[in-house]
Specification:
The protein is α+β, with helices and mostly antiparallel strands. The termini are far apart.
Length: 831
């Protein structure tokens, strides 16, 4: 009985053990099979040799086929950060001392070890200096240029390291506090040791010279491999006399194994060129206002413009954004045509992305270069050879796709020239203000003016020019980006699409159309200009003419009758459009502006989706809040003249006027002429159209009012009042112009005291709050002028919107700039 019970227990134990081993056995079997497959794949990989063949990035072209950006192939030289930072010699010397000590079996005393390290350091430093001298000579550059390039890399990496260290310190201290650790010197030393660990960039190589010719690249590569190349590079070496004969021989032997050019790698490098980055534009002086005609001279003024279309095109850099990698992976997985173009399937199931990011690759950092990165990026060629069979396969490289823009490069340059302070129109001038008006203390005469301009083709919605001033150059981005980001002028901001502005009176034709569409204004209706909207309240909601004349004038007195809609636009009567805003109310005024593209349907922050950088989508109500948030009846009245809680951009203004010119047909603005090959691989965007329901009579009144505003003596956009007399703003023969001025109240621009002083804008003035460390550096009204233009006797062909910040009168400041844009359109064959 006992043996039987024993056997049963034994069998039970064995069964339990077997059951316990089943998962382990299964897992072991799974690992064996998986590991076997993995080992097989690794063995296969060892039998394949791959060689990548470099490619080039696609070009960016303007609408006429001019090259705006292209690659210039060449070689480049990269150095390890250890060499760039100067740490290589010290690291080699320490390693040398350790090797010598080890070879002595631990019998090397501290003093001898220190001497070996000191001599080694001097030798390696001399060796590196001779190598860098020779490298500069081979690359046919001055040694100073090579040193400058290394210094720029050091500065960039040191800045990155400082930022990372600070973030690590915050994280470590927060973690220590969460654990309840006591703040002791030991803890502080431990944290400091951890946070100063090297970052990835300190362990990598970095390009220091790029764009080298083929022959130079080959010469450098040969020098890196040669055994005696450095003998001709004459730099005296430190003496070894401080070491005894035995140690000297060991040091000399160790030095012979040093790389001929420490930390060197020769890379395929393409320089990105922007042929229109620097352009000289000739401007006919006779087309300028008389004060800028240089005593009647009719010679051309030459204006050098730099950074042409920089906001639009963007630039490339060595920083590879995670978003680029993720977007590329999504495109490959979701778009079969894109995947087929960029991938190659090797033997078996391995799929290789020939455009994957590697090493010193460059990628788009902003603008078109950023947005169109997947299509501009070329795909490398690939040669593979199997070591077991000798079979070879080759896939040729393919350049990136060319991207064509709607922009006209020379028109863009001419518009920028018109807005260049050098020409004089974009500087504060005495004739910009009435004689009795006190000069703006934050904007003394001669101050450069910032602003933006957009030129649209009415029929297609294509953007022919889009300028934001001040602009910047890619050299400035490389050399001192901090100065660009901290400047009170904010040159990085694309004011044409990404800065909110109150529109002011340029919205009055749109409000007229909206009131008619909402049946709040009848055909043939006239409204009296009483000078102030509210009876008995002469201190608010006033017409500009009433305010300027101290209550002595209204438009009714000026015209002798109540105003028709077209007359209200002609003379820019506030009372008429206050009335329209009151009738429309919050809901009606919101619908009106939304119908013309303010706060577009895709949602706040989306803008028009041009794909050239961040866009402001427009706002109605509290900025950044839901549509109609906080829009009161009083706000609606102010919004009738483009004030109150409404903001948009120059692109909104040009697009809205183009919609008027198309009798209410909505055609979204476009900046890409996308090829079918790009569209089929996921590029481009669908273009939706729509219709604003504008009664025909209201459309006729609006267009008639716009024509009167710039062509009649009473029009606010008709002439400049100069000391020499009146001068018409638009002086280009054979062109028909419709337009509207706007002078929009703007928030004060504040800046820290030191920033204000360093900017050269004079002594900053205190704001209302004496405790605020910031000071007012700009104040005043923004100047607007929006026009439609076409051939004499014809229909509108182009929409132009210009805004100039804190500069006052729309007619006097922005008007002459718009006039120059019309001359630019004529010069480039559009008018």
């Amino acid at each position: 009985m006992l043996p039987s019970m024993f056997h049963r227990r034994l069998l039970l134990l064995m069964g339990a053990a077997g059951l316990a081993m089943l998962p382990l056995g299964g897992r072991l079997t799974q690992l064996s099979v998986t590991r076997a497959e993995q080992a097989r794949q690794e063995a296969e990989e060892r039998l394949v040799r791959r060689q990548w063949i470099p490619t080039t990035r696609g070009r960016i072209l303007d609408r006429k086929g001019r090259v705006l950006a292209q690659d210039r192939p060449g070689f480049g030289v990269a150095l390890s950060y250890e060499v760039i930072s100067g740490r290589w010699a010290e690291a080699q010397a320490k390693a040398l001392a350790s090797r010598v000590a080890a070879s002595e079996g631990g019998r090397l005393d501290d003093a001898a070890r220190t001497r070996v390290q000191e001599v080694g350091r001097s030798l390696y430093q001399s060796h590196q200096e001779r190598a860098l001298d020779g490298l500069a000579a081979l690359c046919e550059v001055d040694r100073a240029d090579l040193d400058d390039a290394m210094a720029r890399v050091r500065s960039r990496i040191e800045g990155m390291k400082a930022h990372v260290v600070e973030e690590r310190r915050k994280s470590e201290l927060a973690a220590a506090e969460a654990r309840g650790d006591r703040h002791t010197p030991s803890l502080a030393r431990s944290i400091e040791r951890r946070i100063h660990q090297p970052i990835r960039e300190e362990l990598s190589s970095h390009p220091v010279l790029t764009g080298l010719e083929d022959r130079v690249g080959f010469a450098v590569r040969l020098a890196a491999d040669a055994e005696d190349q450095l003998d001709a590079w004459d730099r005296p070496e430190p003496t070894l006399e401080s070491l005894d004969v035995r140690l000297r021989a060991m040091v000399e032997s160790a030095l012979e194994t040093a790389p001929r050019i420490p930390g060197l790698s020769v890379i395929e490098s393409s320089e990105r060129e922007y042929p229109f980055d620097d352009v000289v534009v000739a401007v006919d002086r006779a087309s300028l206002p008389r004060p800028l005609q240089a005593d009647g001279s009719t010679s051309a003024a030459e204006v050098r413009v730099r950074g042409v279309a920089c906001h639009v095109l963007g630039w490339t850099g060595a920083s590879i954004a995670k978003l680029h990698v993720e977007r590329r992976e999504r495109l490959i997985s979701s778009n079969a045509e894109f995947a087929q173009r960029v991938s190659v399937r090797e033997e078996g199931s391995r799929v290789v992305d020939r455009g994957s990011y590697q090493g010193a690759d460059r990628a788009g950092q902003a603008g078109v270069e950023w947005h169109m990165e997947p299509w501009l990026r070329g795909v490398r060629g690939l040669r593979t050879r199997r070591l077991d069979s000798g079979a070879e396969e080759s896939v040729e490289p393919r350049a990136g796709m060319d991207v064509t823009l709607t922009i006209d490069a020379m028109l863009q340059a001419r518009v920028q020239a018109a807005m260049s302070p050098e020409l004089g129109l974009a500087r504060v001038q005495p004739w910009h203000r009435p004689k009795d008006e006190v000069a703006n203390s934050t904007m003394p005469d001669g101050t450069p003016l910032n602003g933006a301009a957009v030129v649209l083709d009415v029929d297609t919605g294509e953007i022919l020019a889009m300028v934001s001033m001040p602009t910047f150059t890619r050299e400035a981005v490389d050399e001192n980006p901090g100065a660009l980001t901290t400047s009170i002028d904010a040159p990085f901001v694309n004011r044409a699409i990404n800065k909110p502005y109150a529109p002011g009176s340029i919205v009055k034709p749109l409000v007229l159309a909206g009131a008619a569409a909402e049946q709040e204004l009848a055909s043939g209706e006239h409204i009296a200009c009483t000078g102030h909207l509210l009876p008995g309240r002469t201190d608010m909601l006033r017409c500009w003419i009433y305010k300027r004349t101290g209550g002595g004038m209204t438009h009714n007195i000026q015209l002798g009758h109540d105003l028709s809609p077209e007359e209200a636009i002609q003379v820019s009567c506030n009372i008429f459009f206050f009335t329209m805003g009151r009738r429309l109310g919050p809901e009606g005024v919101t619908r009106t502006f939304r119908s013309f593209g303010v706060d577009v349907p895709e949602g706040p922050g989306s803008g028009f989706g041009l794909g050239v950088g961040p866009e402001f989508s427009g706002s109605l109500g509290a900025l950044g809040g839901p549509v109609n948030q906080g829009v009161s009846a009083g706000d609606a009245i102010q919004m009738g003249i483009g004030q109150g809680p409404i903001a948009w951009t120059p692109l909104h203004a040009a697009s809205a006027y183009a919609t008027l010119a198309r009798a209410g047909a909505v055609v979204p603005p476009e900046i890409y002429l996308v090829s079918e090959s790009i569209r089929s691989t996921g590029g481009g965007r669908p273009r939706s159209t729509g219709q604003v329901a504008i009664p025909s009579w209201a459309l006729g009144d609006a267009m008639k009012g716009l024509e009167l505003a710039v062509n009649s003596d009473l029009g606010t956009g008709h002439h400049l009042s100069l000391e020499t007399g009146e001068e018409v703003i638009f002086n280009l023969e054979g062109v028909r112009v419709w337009g509207k001025t706007g002078t929009a109240a703007a928030s004060k621009l504040l800046a820290p005291v030191e920033a204000a002083r360093n900017d050269g804008s004079g002594d900053p003035r205190g704001d209302d709050d004496p405790e605020d460390p910031r000071r007012v550096v700009r104040e005043g009204d923004h100047s607007w002028f929006v026009v439609l233009a076409g051939e004499a006797g014809g229909r509108p062909r182009y929409a132009i919107a210009v805004v100039m910040e804190y500069s006052g009168s729309g007619g006097k400041v922005s008007g002459p700039i718009v006039n120059q844009i019309l001359h630019a359109l004529r010069a480039e064959g559009y008018l």
